[in-house]
Write a structure and sequence with these properties.
Trna Endonuclease, Chain: A, domain 1; alpha+beta; 28% helix
């Protein structure tokens, strides 16, 4: 992982934990189907699978291309892998979020429900 990506994921974890009070369950969870940057839980018994994208400079128009259908499929398959490995979360609802971080200047953009596994 490059330094900018590491910085962005660290900042995103701090934001989710410190500002939203979410419990961080896993960082960079990997299985055969892919990876999820951050897996966390909310007080409302929701497991949130978060993809983090970090840019030195960004344009808001570029954000829609950051998590394409192929990436969504990998994330959702990895979520299924996580839930099968940790059955204690089987009763939780699931959500897929994205955190976009601009490095210059530092800004955090958190988007909830960026895609739905069941929409296809």
């Amino acid at each position: 992982m490059n330094a900018i990506a590491y910085f962005g994921e660290k900042l995103a974890r701090e934001y989710l934990h410190t500002h939203l009070f979410w419990k961080i369950l896993k960082n960079n969870f990997r299985c055969l189907s892919g990876e999820v940057d951050i897996i966390s839980s909310t007080d409302e018994n929701i497991i949130v699978f978060t993809e983090v994208k970090t840019w030195r400079a960004y344009r808001m128009a570029d954000l829609q291309y950051a998590i394409d259908k192929t990436k969504q499929k990998r994330i959702s398959n990895t979520a299924i892998c996580f839930l099968s490995k940790y059955p204690q979360y089987a009763s939780y609802s699931c959500r897929f979020d994205a955190v976009f971080i601009s490095v210059e200047p530092v800004k955090i953009f958190h988007f909830c429900d960026v895609f739905d596994v069941w929409e296809e």
